[in-house]
Target: DNA-binding transcriptional LysR family regulator
Amino acid sequence: MLTHQRRFLPSTSALAAFDSVAKLGSFSAAANELALTQGAISRQIGLLEDQLGVKLFERTNRGVELTAIGRTYAKGIGDALATIRTLSLEAMATRDDTHLRLAILPTFGTRWLMPRIPDFLSKNPAIIMDFATRIGQFDFEGSGLDAAIHIGEPNWPGTDCQFLMHEMVAPVCSPAFLAANPVKRPEDLLAKPLFDMASRPRAWEHWFASLGISEGRGGGMRFEQFSNVVQACHAGLGIALVPTFLIEPELASGQLVRAWDHEVKSASAYYLVRPLSKMAYGPASTFAAWILEQARTFSERRPTSG
Model:
């Protein structure tokens, strides 16, 4: 009976090779992805086809294509391997209760969080932190992550979102750009190149509304990452509406200046997000208590008017 069962249980090496070829469409690309030789990939596929007694790929001049049976098998095997990876990550996560795997926003992580991390580690020396960069919502289930710092709204399905802080935003640009494109009144900004950020899609509308300005504006560049929009400002390409607490060094040095001196509270806010399945995980709970206190202290010490 056991021998009969094994016939229908191919090796994970063969399944990984098949999954990679199915996704990438060539043996050479799969070899690169799995750090194997093309010959090794070909042998694994051959063994799998022999074991199953079916042809999974058609060899063509352009590479390989899945057969009809291969397409059905690929979908099932892809899902099965994803499940195995998830279960493996969860098993690894339960090896001990000393690791904290945290997703961070790139600029918030480097400029606000990292300078404070030594305090957390000094108070919790047994906790080992791993960091991953994430922008926007993602699926916690297959990520191996315990928590995330999120900018936006507390609407992440399957999670608990704890408010950390608001942000104050103001329009900034390079001194050279402002000299060449003077702003005499806030309405003048409507005709300037204004940058948009993916994480704050209606930020400009909110800022203009706070001044009673409802006229439409022209289009502008759109950026995914905060660091890129700041670089575009440095390059003199236009004006960005950014959280002032994240560009304090640039404002202090004069590398960036306010295009109009008016700050508003952003419609977006920062949250600590934890999957509901990990709310009882010790290191994440410890970190939550610490960062909530850090955020509270920071918010009390900065101006909130504007």
Notes: Residues 92 and 144 are 9 Å apart (CA to CA). The radius of gyration is 26 Å.
